[in-house]
Design a protein that fits this description.
It contains three helices and six strands. It has 138 residues and is an alpha+beta fold.
Length: 138
Amino acid sequence: MPDNPDNPDDDMIIPLFPPAPEVAEGDYVTLQSSHQRFNDRRKYFILDEARKPVEVDMMTWAVWFSTDKKSLAHDEGNGWSVSSIFLGFDYAPLGKVRLMFETLYVFEGNCDVARFETVDDCLGYHQDMVGQMVERVQ
């Protein structure tokens, strides 16, 4: 008999997560979320002097990323802004192309973002967007 008489299909509900393991006093269980497993495989990158991504350990990345070196370009005008940065991660980890550079533009409260494989592509798009923003406000 179903637990809930208002829902006759109640006994057909399949739990999303398995029950927690039984743990005896003094035992320890290590649980790892999918987010933690992803972070264990995450690769960290900084930019070298030629603005090419170089893989580094997490601590080197954290120190480098706390600086302003990740900012590539920023322009703004009356009601718009365009900002380009190095992301420090590959935002297409399942793809064949590494997307580590990003340009964000904001125009009259609306925004959009584009990601790129190379710094040159990112900065080229940045300049194109600045040109479009200047034309729109004239």
